[in-house]
UniProtKB/TrEMBL annotation:
The lineage of its organism: Bacteria, Bacillati, Actinomycetota, Actinomycetes, Kitasatosporales. SMART domains: HTH_LUXR. This is LuxR C-terminal-related transcriptional regulator. It comes from the Bacteria. Gene3D superfamilies: Winged helix-like DNA-binding domain superfamily/Winged helix DNA-binding domain. Residues 263-320 form the HTH luxR-type domain.
């Protein structure tokens, strides 16, 4: 009988399954062990496939049982040999790819890194100074979180004025809440007289600085005093487009005009707060996101609650969603 080393054939009885030997096979093997052999037509196919029953050379047409340990050499041997060949192929392919990885790394080693993590205020400050010095056309900046710290504005003002006086366009987006921050407004008034353009939105997703269309800086994850310098042209263009889209939706700040809180700004802030209420956010979460005080957010929410007759936060969310207040 010619052995088939392509793998065990499926059992030809109805009770077989891929991981269970059928009861007729167990019964037939038990009978063969007791009788010494069985007629070939009484032996289920799975026993022959597992090499547990082989042809009796002294009695053609009959099969004799083989110890499972002996049968395992015929059944498992070809499988183990195939696995060994695949492992050799895997090692060879991995070794070859390692050689090419070295060539690839050598070819790109001299190229500037498209993404560079910067850690520490001093390192980030030097990188920004280099970006300002190398800028030729425009600086785009977006700052979340309401009014900016005094020391940051004092450091930025001389640099920004120099940039503007050498013909660099500067566009900045803040959140609406800076319109109530005297320090930030004083800075805005100073730079706008030099030609800077400043606008505000209810919410600014994150800080972005883009120099021309070839260099950008964004925060590195949520780590403090850490930034990502981006020099990949496609990513920088994406960030510039993202800024331009936000700029088109924002409201100009003109410090010489009073009041700064225009109806558009007030409506935009209220709509953003109410959208957050409908989304289930707390006053503290909304305040942090919009750069406002928690008390100011609570006051907005209180007035709308009284207007709609709401008796709970959950009811307020439902009433706001169905009242039409969020419609543009």
């Amino acid at each position: 009988m010619k052995d088939d080393h392509s793998g065990p054939r499926a059992c030809d009885c109805r009770e077989s399954s891929p991981n269970r030997v059928c009861d007729p096979a167990l019964a037939a093997y038990r009978r063969a062990l007791a009788d010494g052999s069985l007629p070939a037509d009484e032996v289920p196919g799975c026993l022959s496939a597992l090499h547990l029953m082989v042809e009796d050379r002294d009695a053609p047409g009959r099969l004799v049982p083989v110890p499972p340990e002996t049968a395992s050499f015929d059944v498992l041997g070809p499988i183990e040999a195939a696995i060994a060949r695949q492992r050799r192929t895997l090692r060879s392919a991995r070794a070859a790819l390692t050689v090419f990885e070295g060539l690839y790394a050598d070819a790109h080693r001299l190229e500037p890194s498209a993404l560079t993590r910067l850690s520490g205020e001093a390192v980030i400050g030097k990188a920004l100074e280099a970006g300002v010095a190398g800028c030729r056309e425009e600086v785009r900046t977006a700052h979340p979180g309401g009014g900016r710290p005094v020391h940051v504005l004092e450091e930025s003002l001389p640099r920004d004025v120099r940039n503007l006086r050498r013909g660099i366009r500067q566009r900045t987006i803040y959140q609406h809440t800076v319109r109530s921050d005297r320090t930030t407004l004083a800075y805005i008034e100073r730079v706008t007289t030099e030609g800077a353009e400043v606008r505000t939105l209810a919410e600014v997703a994150d800080r972005i600085i883009v120099f021309d269309r070839n260099l950008a800086f964004v925060p590195f994850s949520d780590e403090p005093h850490s930034a990502l310098r981006i020099q990949h042209p496609s990513l920088v263009r994406f960030l510039a487009r993202h800024f331009d889209e936000a700029w088109a939706r924002s409201v100009p700040v003109r410090p010489e005009r009073v009041p700064l809180r225009t109806p558009v700004v007030t409506s935009d802030l209220q709509r953003t707060i109410l959208q957050a209420v409908v989304g289930g956010e707390t006053d503290q979460s909304i305040a942090r996101r919009l750069g406002m005080s928690r008390r100011s957010v609570a006051e907005h929410v209180r007035r709308v609650s009284e207007q709609l007759g709401s008796k709970s936060r959950a009811q307020l969310g439902y009433l706001v969603a169905t009242s039409g207040l969020l419609e543009a």
